[in-house]
Amino acid sequence: MVVKVYGSIRAACPQRVLACLLEFGVDFELINVDLDSNEHKQPEFLQKQPFGQVPVIEDGDFRLFESRAIMRYYARKYADRNPKLYGTTLDEKALVDQWLEVEAHHFNDMVYTIVLQKLVIPKMGGKPDLALVQNCEKKLEKVFDIYEQQLSKNRYLAGDCFTLADLSHLPGIRYLINEAELGHMVKEKKNVNSWWCDISNRVAWKKVMQLME
Amino acid sequence: MAIKLYGAPGSTATLRVRACLAEKDLDYEFVNVDMGAKEHKKPEFLSRNPFGQVPAFEDGDLKLFESRAITQYIAHAYADKGNDLIIKDVKKMAIQSVWMEVESQKYEPATSKLIWELCLKPMWGMPVDEAVAEENEKKLEDVLDIYESRLSESKYLGGDGFTLADLHHLPNLKYLMGTKVKKVFDARPHVSAWASEILSRPAWVKATATVA
Question: What was the pLDDT predicted at A188?
Fold first, then answer.
């Protein structure tokens, strides 16, 4: 039975889950949720995800939401298929969790606000808060400074192997480089740039990008 | 001592870890970080947490930051000590994980902004931004409506027993219960009962004994 993933291929959080499923070789069916027509806020969808957000996964009669919880579930369930993705020792797992928290709190908040202000609000006919965008961009530069330092010591964020912590960044950085036109933040930093080139060339992520076309 | 926690007594993130250590009945050395003197922004502390935030944590050679990564490490590494904070079954653990993400992504942003406006700003004589407070109170109400529904079906947020999914809420809950926002918790019977219960846990009482 394939895992059903409810979401839009264009949205960051479903992309995060799909990349993870592909890394673990889990077959899935992507069921589109039409965000433009507010399908995610309708009662039928709210039954699946009370906060009205994508993605939701249904694995038989087992349902989960929150992309990072979904990632951790599949990483535990299929640890033997790709043990390094969530660390093999308690210490390694702790470092993956640490950098996943960094992504969720320091990185994601900034990217989310930038995308909301620069893309979503203008698309809905609203006026973006440019001061807020500038503020977020400054904070994001500082986050990338820290990543630059971390990546000078390790090949990947949590150590020498690619993990969920790196994977979790893929959708957000894609947005920054493409729609948000802030690619310079990545390209101007030697280690961050090498890291991005490495992780964005992984087979699993390239398959997600193909699905977008 | 193998376990060291670098933090500030009033910091919600530091309290989150202290709560976890207390539930697991673990001994540790608490190293005070003088935030008033901006110690958390100085090179020595930045080498422990490059983001310049408390807490930072050590267990032997392992060095960690981010309170929710630290609590998860403690819960797994010391699974056989103190109270269980992680459900072992993989599917049930995933459900617990969902509600840990909800706390982190939904509850934390609204409550931390409210704490800033209603608790911290007044403490430092700064004017409260009522618009921001109102906006975040509304966001918190929307989140708690969903909690009310969840807690009508499940004794605790993460499942049948108390876990990190509940524990992570405690520090922000403690602060907000001392403000006008207490009413939004009181207005929802299941949320109110859950909040009272977890706030009265002996480990939480022990963890907050050091905080004014």
Answer: 96
Query: Which amino acid is residue A134, in one-letter code?
Result: Q
What residues in A contact B146, CB-CB < 8 Å? 50-51
What is the C-alpha separation between A69 and B104, in angstroms, rounded? 11
The answer to whether the CB of A170 falls within 8 A of the CB of A206 is no
Residue with tokens 């995933």: B94
The ipTM value here is 0.96
Q: What is the pLDDT of residues B7-16, one digit of tens each?
A: 999 999 999 9
Structure tokens at A87: 């660390």
Q: Which runs of consecutive H residues, i.e. helices, occur in chain B? A: 12-23, 43-46, 67-77, 90-102, 108-115, 121-123, 130-153, 164-167, 170-176, 182-186, 189-199, 202-207
* Residue B93, token pair as written in the block: 């653990």
- CB of A95 within 8 Å of a chain B CB? The answer is yes
Go through chain B and tell me how many residues it has.
Answer: 212
The parts of chain A modelled with pLDDT lower than 70 are: none
Of A51, A97, A149, the CB nearest to B146: A51
Q: At what angle do helices A170-177 and A108-115 cross, to 10 degrees?
A: 40
What single DSSP character describes residue A156? B
CA distance A75 to chain B (A): 10
Is the pLDDT confidence value at B212 over 70? no
CB pairs under 8 A between A and B: 76
Q: Tell me the C-alpha distance between A174 and B186, whole Å.
A: 43
- Residue B122: cis peptide before it, omega within 30 degrees of 0: no
d(CA A83, CA A76): 9
Q: Closest chain B residue to A97 measured between Cα atoms?
A: B69
Q: Is pTM beyond 0.90 here?
A: yes
Confidence at residue B211, expressed as pLDDT on a 0 to 100 scale: 64
Residues in chain A: 213
Q: Which two tokens stand for residue A97?
A: 């969790």
